[in-house]
Every structure is written in C-alpha cells, then in structure tokens.
Write a structure and sequence with these properties.
The complex is a heterodimer of chains A (about 325) and B (about 180).
Chain A: E1 8-17, H1 30-44, E2 49-53, H2 59-67, H3 73-77, E3 83-87, E4 92-96, E5 102-109, H4 113-128, E6 135-136, E7 140-141, E8 153-160, H5 162-166, H6 170-179, E9 182-188, E10 195-203, H7 211-239, H8 241-257, H9 263-278, H10 286-295, H11 298-308, H12 313-327
Antiparallel strand pairs in A: 1-5, 1-8, 2-3, 3-4, 4-5, 6-7, 8-10, 9-10
Helix pairs in contact in A: 1-4, 2-11, 8-9, 9-10, 10-12, 11-12
Chain B: E1 13-19, E2 22-28, H1 30-41, H2 45-62, H3 74-80, H4 86-91, H5 93-104, H6 115-128, H7 143-160, H8 164-184
The chains are: A alpha+beta (about 325), B mainly alpha (about 180).
Chain lengths: ~325, ~180
C-alpha cells in the first residue's frame, strides 16, 4: 500500500471572515480592512507576514502567487483593492478584499488538515484582536455568499489520482461524495478534464456542522480515495508492470530531455512521473515533483525565461525542469 | 381607477386574494370581472389559476425587500448571489432561511464562536458552576454586566422564537455595550 503523502499532495483550510462593523464588500472600506489586517499581523507577529498589494505587482507576479495557491482567481479579479498577507514560510496567507473582507488560508504539504486548521485559527485569533468578526448565534459567521455561512470554512485535500482516472472511476466517486455534503473536482483544466490527474475534495456544507466534523468528513473521504487509488496501483503493478513502467519512463524521459513543452503536456508527464516516484521507478524525491507542480506553471516559467534571457516560455519550462531533476 | 386587466375601463370590482405572501387586491372593470366569473363557472380551472398566478406574480415582483443596513434589494442579491452586510441576514431572514436550508441542509450554526463570546460564555458557565457557590469571594456584578446578561437572554429567546428583528435589535444593543466596555478597559 502507498503512503498517504504519495497520493495526498496537500491539505488546505480556508476561513471566510468579515469585520462586524463594515458592509461586506465596499470599495470605500477596502483600505480600512487592509489596515486592520496589516496592523494585527504587524503588531502581534513581529513581522512574520509580508504584504503584497496586487495593484503594485505585475500581472505575472500576481499569477505566480495564484500558481502557488496563495491567492485565488477571485482576488485577481479584485486586483484594484485586493492584497495578500503571506506568512514567510508561505504556509499561511490572508487574502484581503476578496469576496469577503478576509480569507484566511493555511496549506499543509501531504494533507494534514488538523494542523492546517490550527494554523488558520491561530491567524484568525491574531486578526480578531484588532476588530471582531461578523457573527450571529443562529447563522454563525456571516459571509457575503450564503454558501459559506456558518463556519465560513472550506477544508480541502488535493489528491493525485492517476489510476482512478485511468480506470474511469472518478464519475462514480463524484456522485457518492456529493451525498456526504462534499464535492470533488479537477484542480487544473476545465470541465471534465482534470490536468495532472489532480483533484480537490472539499466540503460544500458549512452551516450546521462543526469545524471538526467537516475536517473529519473530508479526511475520511480522502482516506477512502487514497485506499482506492493505492489498491489500483498495487493491482496494476501485479498485472501489467511493464505497461505501467513504460508509461512512467516515457514521461520521465521526455521531462528529462525535451526542449520545448507546453503546460498541458507538462501536466500529463508530470502525473506519470509522480506516479513513478511513488512506485519507486523514478529516482527523484516527491518534494521535487511537487515543487515543479508550481514552478513549471506558465507565470513562473515566464519569469524564469526573462531572468535567463530564454526566447520562449516553453523552452524555459524544459530548462527549469532539467535543472530541478538534475539537482535531485 | 382603471381596470388592471384591460387597462381601458373604470374598475368597479375589487378581487381580494389571500396567500402565504399576504393579501393581494386586484381592481377589475365589469367586463373583466364577468370573464373571471365565466372561467370559474365553466370550470376552466387553468384560466382561473393563471389569472390568480398573474396577480400573485405581480405581487411577488413588488415584494422586493430592501436591507435597512446597506440598502441592498433582495432582487439584486438574487442576481449577484452576494449579500451586502450582516443586517441583510436579518432583513431577508424569511427568504434566506429556506435558502440556507436548501444549501446546507441546516439553519443553525454548530461551530466555533468568536473569542470574545467564548470568554463571556466561560465566565457565565463558571458563575453557574457549583464551585462558584463555595464561600469564595463572590465577584460583584456590575450594572453593565447585568444589562448585558438581560440582553443576551432576550436575544436568545428572540432567536428561539425566530423573531430575528428583535434578536438583531438586542444583538446591536449588546454589541454597543461590549464596544463601550472594551474602550473603558
């Protein structure tokens, strides 16, 4: 059986919060929200957080933060007033002036949602010191969109499920997960296509359940998916090891020697390589493959291309991948 | 007044309909009233129902509550899916509560409470615990704390009765008291 971190890439907790004395989303109050959040983190954490004001950043700098999952697409849409306070270890980020005043987010490599929740609540307590949040004894934390009301919490696990995808099991999984008040969707790509065989399982219900219950439900479903994926991997290794190894090593070969590659092709080979690492076929650490998942995306490679004066981003992507694989 | 159906003749009849959304009145001329009655007499239930629904429909269109906190219309929320402020939850409670039930299968929060509320609850629990009855010095309850306690009780009762308007009023008063307390501290 595979270790869970070989399938669970990361876990994420997101809390939606609004200051009790301000309208939820208002251009006029955007500066007040940012000042409060900045003051709280500046005064109580000895500058553990760095301020990123989207308006002062280039488009690619903003996109790079999104590729790291530190900010959301919705914050990019509000680039005029949006900002992010990012903890120096990049595990916690606070988006300011997104759909709600604050979106507190903690990411944990390998999935541990409990630890991510601890980190998020720690940040919440600090932010609360400057001004309290909008709360109602019946409805819980009040958010701009009623889909987040209650705990304001979204707990999600990013899972790498290449075998479940290959055996076309994801449709069934989606239906069963929905019955539990959870949802599963591809992280990259549009519609039914899930680039890199990466999925996010998260709670849809945020009102009426405690934070612990939500985390437990997402973790339980995540574990079930991990067991299913792991079982299929074991079965394929027993039944058709040559075919599986061939697919993995072809992808590893292309990632090691190709000269140009677009993002879509990269994601396909990345998925095979990560599977190969988990199965002990490819001599690269999982951490390197997971680092590439962020750093070989478009905005990151455009930045790398500019730094190295490489003509195209596709060429820069291949050079960067080679550097990472050789370093490992 | 002109007939609301044909918009041509003077209205001489008033039809009153009572539904879950309240009472709706429609003013009709003699001719349109006859058509209505004929529909009923013919047993043309579909025409009759569509007439009623058109009246109720026009009533629903005008039933567009506005939030007293931020001025957001409920119809604007339906379009954008975004509420404007905390008060929207109370002013739109009649419509939002069934919506929250549909989304979450529940309408009662069951998770964490803000720290400020936690400490109050802890203090109340401690005061209510048997240990607090031992001859240890009993903390003197300030008049402000008494008022807070009363407001809290009233707010809980109002919430239990789903009387959200009153609950919001008590919550705001409580908040104002708490804010003052913090400033003094």
């Amino acid at each position: 059986m595979a270790n869970s971190h070989e399938i669970a890439v990361s876990g994420r907790i997101r809390l939606a919060r609004n200051y009790h004395d301000l309208p939820f989303h208002n251009q006029e109050n955007a500066a007040t929200c940012l000042k409060r959040a900045y003051d709280a983190l500046h005064n109580y954490t000895e500058d553990l957080y760095t301020l990123h004001i989207l308006n002062n950043m280039s488009k690619d700098e903003r996109l790079s933060l999104m590729e790291e999952h530190l900010i959301s697409a919705d914050l990019l849409k509000n680039a005029g007033t949006g900002a992010a306070l990012i903890r120096k270890d990049r595990q916690v980020s606070i988006m300011v002036n997104e759909e709600d005043h604050l979106r507190i987010q903690a990411i944990e490599v390998g999935g541990g949602l409990e630890h991510a929740a601890q980190q998020a609540f720690q940040a919440e307590e600090i932010l609360e010191k400057v001004c309290g949040f909008s709360f109602d004894p019946k409805f819980g934390y009040l958010t701009s969109c009623p889909t987040n009301t209650g705990t304001g919490m979204r707990a999600s696990l990013m899972l790498h499920l290449p075998m479940l995808t290959r055996y076309k099991q994801m449709g069934n999984v989606g239906q069963n997960v929905a019955k539990l008040g959870l949802t599963i969707r591809g992280i990259y790509g549009e519609g039914s296509e899930a680039l890199g065989d990466l999925y996010q399982v998260s709670n849809q219900v945020s009102l009426g359940r405690s934070e612990e219950d939500i985390i437990q439900a997402v973790t339980a479903v995540g574990k079930q998916l991990i067991d299913m994926e792991s079982g299929l991997r074991d079965r394929s290794m027993k039944r058709a090891p040559a075919e599986l190894k061939d697919a993995v090593m072809r992808s590893y070969g292309l990632l090691s020697y190709a000269i140009t590659m677009d993002e879509k092709e990269f994601m396909q080979h990345w998925s095979n390589m990560r599977l190969g690492i988990a199965l002990g076929m490819v001599p690269t650490p999982l951490s390197t493959s997971d680092e590439l998942l962020t750093t070989a995306q478009n905005a990151h490679v455009r930045h790398f291309a500019a730094k190295r004066e490489i003509a195209s981003a596709r060429e820069a992507r291949c050079e960067w991948i080679r550097e990472c694989l050789n370093r490992a | 007044m002109l007939c609301e159906e044909c918009q041509m003749n003077e209205a001489v009849f008033t039809v009153t309909l009572t539904s879950g959304d309240g009472v709706t009145r429609k003013h009709l001329c003699g001719e349109c009233m006859k058509k209505w009655e004929a529909n009923l007499a013919d047993g043309d239930i579909h025409s009759f129902l569509s007439s009623i629904l058109s009246i109720l429909g026009s009533a629903q269109k005008t039933d567009d509550p506005v939030c007293s906190g931020c001025g957001l219309k409920y119809s604007a929320f339906e379009k954008s899916g975004r509420l404007g402020c905390a008060q929207c939850y109370h002013d739109f409670a009649d419509k939002l509560t069934p919506m929250l039930k549909r989304i979450h299968g529940n309408t009662q929060h069951n998770g964490r409470t803000p720290r400020a509320m936690q400490t109050q609850a802890d203090a109340a629990a401690q005061a209510a615990s048997p240990e607090a009855e031992t001859p240890a010095p009993v903390p003197e309850i300030s008049p402000v704390e008494k008022m807070r306690e009363e407001l809290r009780k009233k707010m809980d009762e109002a919430v239990a009765c789903e009387n959200f308007e009153d609950a919001a009023k008590y919550r705001d008063q409580l908040k104002a008291l708490m804010d003052d307390g913090e400033v003094q501290a």
